[in-house]
């Protein structure tokens, strides 16, 4: 058993304990409380000026992509077994960034399953992975090169069934086109209503939640209509720009309780017009009760897996307070991904997923960029720092 203590403990559900600690043993959290209430005859790791909080959650990553200048070409060049090594190093980079749970929303060759199981078995190093394997897309559609092209109700049912047989944790559907595939139009739907209904019914029957990649308004509407479980991106994109925000549809998202993973990474935020409109629309959606969770799209261009904290700063730039960002990255994300019983909060019985940072992230989110310690299911890591990073 080990005792971690710090000046403050953020429990992940909005709670704060001053001079608090967490007792970890056998891979799970045994106790959480004020230091004065906890046993002291344990191995003790103290962060007298620091903060303990739940391990962070990235609800949207691509381990097959390297986050460099041209990840898709790189993936197509190295799509053999060596791709697994790239994925292992990306998983380790996430862990070093404090991420103890990551949802991989677009794998290749079912290698995400291999890596997930390596990590679960304790022979690999990385966050708990929730794997979607190949995302369903139209033939030649967004991310077709990941192998998920399909068309027609029967073929879609077969594809979803195969994902489950391989051991996928969830289904990802490219409901609309996307940005990283030439010829793909992000504002246009890729499937018919009958196809989407079949995919969702089959996935839910097989116990898999459905993540809807949706930029365009029609796709966002389809995600709500068909009862998909999370909406990714949700940029309200039209042919003319990011100008399709529909308040009534935002109300429908809120009423249905579908969490939105806005993939708030710095890439699109570089465009000032986009960022200004995004900030306005995200604020509007939140006022209407839409819940956002943290996810980065790590792996896409200029979005390395090590840069998780940068994406949280981007999220803050869209109007979230540090406390709201932290909840979106811990307790709320865990609830949205269906793993709140295991992670996302510091409470007895949860898996021992926690990080320690120097300073107070409620005052300065940037302290999350350099966790001093990362504990994932009880295993303690001291993050490796990239030289000069
Ligand atoms: Zn993505």
Automatic annotation (TrEMBL):
Gene3D superfamilies with a match to the protein in the record: Metal-dependent hydrolases (3.20.20.140), Urease, subunit C, domain 1 (2.30.40.10)
Domain Amidohydrolase-related: 51-375
UniProt xrefs under Pfam families: Amidohydro_1 (PF01979)
Keywords (A to Z) from UniProt: Hydrolase
Coiled coil regions in record: none
UniProt GO MF annotations: hydrolase activity, acting on carbon-nitrogen (but not peptide) bonds
InterPro entries for the chain: Amidohydro-rel, Metal-dep_hydrolase_composite, Metal_Hydrolase, Metallo-dep_Hydrolase
PANTHER family xrefs: ALPHA-D-RIBOSE 1-METHYLPHOSPHONATE 5-TRIPHOSPHATE DIPHOSPHATASE
Entry protein name: Amidohydrolase
Source organism per UniProt: Streptomyces himastatinicus ATCC 53653
């Amino acid at each position: 058993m080990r005792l971690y203590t710090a000046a403050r403990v953020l429990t992940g559900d909005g709670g704060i304990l001053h001079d608090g600690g967490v007792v970890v043993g056998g891979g799970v959290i045994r106790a959480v409380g004020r230091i004065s209430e906890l046993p002291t005859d344990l191995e003790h790791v103290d962060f007298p000026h620091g903060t303990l909080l739940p391990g962070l959650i990235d609800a949207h990553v691509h381990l097959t992509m390297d986050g460099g200048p041209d990840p898709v070409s790189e993936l197509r060049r190295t799509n053999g077994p060596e791709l697994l090594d790239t994925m292992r190093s990306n998983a380790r980079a996430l862990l070093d960034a404090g991420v103890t749970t990551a949802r991989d929303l677009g794998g290749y060759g079912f290698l995400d399953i291999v890596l997930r199981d390596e990590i679960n078995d304790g022979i690999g190093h990385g966050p708990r992975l929730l794997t979607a394997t190949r995302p369903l897309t139209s033939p030649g559609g967004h991310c077709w090169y990941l192998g998920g092209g399909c068309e027609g109700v029967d073929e879609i049912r077969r594809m979803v069934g195969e994902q489950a047989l391989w051991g996928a944790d969830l289904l990802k559907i490219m409901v609309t086109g996307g940005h990283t595939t030439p010829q793909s139009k992000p504002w246009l739907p890729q499937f018919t209503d009958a196809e989407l209904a079949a995919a969702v019914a089959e996935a839910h029957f097989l116990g898999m939640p459905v993540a809807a990649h949706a930029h365009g308004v029609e796709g966002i509407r389809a995600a709500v209509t068909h009862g998909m479980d999370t909406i990714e991106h949700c940029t309200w994109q039209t042919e003319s720009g990011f100008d399709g925000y529909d308040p009534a549809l935002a109300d429908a998202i809120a009423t249905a309780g579908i969490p939105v993973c806005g993939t708030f990474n710095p890439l699109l935020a570089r465009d000032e017009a986009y960022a200004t409109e995004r900030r306005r629309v995200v604020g509007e959606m939140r006022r209407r009760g839409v819940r956002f969770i943290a996810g980065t799209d790590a792996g896409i261009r200029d979005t390395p897996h090590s840069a998780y904290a940068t994406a949280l700063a981007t999220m803050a730039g869209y109007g979230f307070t540090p406390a709201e960002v932290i909840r979106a990255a811990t307790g709320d994300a865990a609830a949205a991904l269906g793993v709140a019983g295991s992670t996302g909060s510091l409470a007895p019985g949860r898996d021992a997923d926690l990080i320690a940072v120097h300073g107070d992230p409620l005052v300065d989110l940037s302290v999350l960029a350099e966790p001093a310690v990362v504990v994932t299911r009880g295993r303690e890591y001291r993050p490796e720092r990239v030289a000069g990073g």
